[in-house]
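Weekly structure sync, notes
Attendees: PL (lead), two postdocs, one rotation student
Agenda item 3: pending single-chain targets
PL asked that the sequence for the first pending target be pasted directly into the notes so everyone works from the same version. It is reproduced below exactly as submitted, 288 residues in total.
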Amino acid sequence: MSQAPARPLILVSNDDGITAPGIRCLVEIVHALGAEVVVVAPDSPQSGMGHAITIGHPMRLTENPIFGPNVQAYECSGTPADCVKIAKHYVLKDRTPDLVVSGINHGSNSSVNVLYSGTMSAAIEAAIEGLPAVGFSLCDYGPKADFSHAAEWVRQVCEHALAHGVPAGTALNVNIPKKSETPIAGLRLARQARAKWQEEFDRRLDPYQRPYFWLRGEFVNFDHGTDTDEWALAHNYVSVVPCQFDLTAAHGLAHLSQQWQLPLPEAREVAAPPQPVAPEDYGVANPN
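Predicted structure, written out during the meeting:
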């Protein structure tokens, strides 16, 4: 008599905190896949924390029945990266997740935003641990953001990740356009756009006339390529960008070796930057 296939084990985290609407949506989506779901998420918002970890003071981990009796969930006083670390090494102990998902973030994490993102730090921490991981973000910062149209796309990406895996050493950065009257065009594999925040600090005074500062800025896209995440989102596609934690710039090694004449063993074997994969090669159908 054949045994029923084992349920996949999916670890869920985020950076908006365990009570955020986005993580509830994500938990419901992966639970509907028939997976065993374990949640370890921050006990308060951790947006913009990047890949920070807690080393100067203790962390607290508290079980929370917020998602009902069928989902084992914990809130953690640490950062998103902390959440994945403590999930792997303490909560799950000897069990290895089949997939780690983070989000759904309230706001875009496209382009350079990935460097600041707590959502993606959770996914990248999982990749560092050798686990397949995906970070999901919705391009809507509104407190009442509508996640309903995102479910089908999140489901598709999770199913593909479970069935076909994620490239070693990478985490997928998936950004979903804000809900509108125009149906989402599909999933598009892309590269990270070359863009940045043009920032300034607004100097203000508190009631005691002491100065304080508020960071503000405008997002500027310098990249006019049609193969970027920003182009995909502007044309109502869900963008999928494979991100790596190895920050070595291969072209920088070659330049420093040749122009600075710094020794580089086997310099001729330095790899060229990876070429973007054509969107059609991703092989994901449009459900609309």
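Discussion points:
- The first strand starts at residue 9 and ends at 13.
- Confidence is low (pLDDT under 50) at residues 267-288.
Action: rotation student to compare against the earlier draft before next sync.
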